[in-house]
């Protein structure tokens, strides 16, 4: 199996180190046929200044991407976002009219975001950091996290959930079932490498499909998914289970 598309790369528009053009050229060098520019949504600006300045910036990125797509016929360049969930109702930090303009919508359950309200902050940030570390309310937190993600899947057309279960306790089998229903792919993320064989086996047994993502924050990491690919093979996944390998 060989990667042909990397749908999860960051640029200087959020907290990546390279430009869109540098990511594209790195992808071409690695022999990829498709690349998506998926910078962090604006709620990541809240605590850590990791996101795009505002949601409208995603339209600027789209314009740039369209120009490069014409300029580099050897690769398909897609505009995307790694949007944030900002409340317990599963709402995202990017308005629908902007999401509709993008080629792909990735969603990450990130903890260091600007939540919609104090209550959302407690459920998303406090519960998954302080409470989890103290090992309190694990079952309740797991139930709530899974519920929040499923609400997002039901509300929006989401292509990929990035790093599911990274720093947030999630019920894999429930999430996988919901993802199959909504046609959403679950990512195997190279940067965080938190995924386990057991997780993949459970998710695939529910019929989930996966996307390998470099989550590159610098051009030299674009298309690097070796560890994710090894893990997928160990868990018995085949080409039919992964959308971006050939
Ligand atoms: Zn992420
Ligand atoms: Zn990312």
TrEMBL record:
Q: State the source organism's domain of life.
A: Bacteria
Question: Would the keyword Nucleus be found if you checked this record's keyword annotation?
Answer: no
Listed GO cellular component terms?
A: cytosol
- What are the Polymerase/histidinol phosphatase N-terminal domain coordinates in residue numbering? 5-87
Q: Enumerate the Pfam families for this protein.
A: PHP (PF02811)
Key word Hydrolase present in the record?
yes
GO MF terms here are:
phosphoric ester hydrolase activity; zinc ion binding
Gene3D superfamilies hit by this protein: Metal-dependent hydrolases
Keywords, alphabetical: Hydrolase
Q: Name it.
A: Putative hydrolase
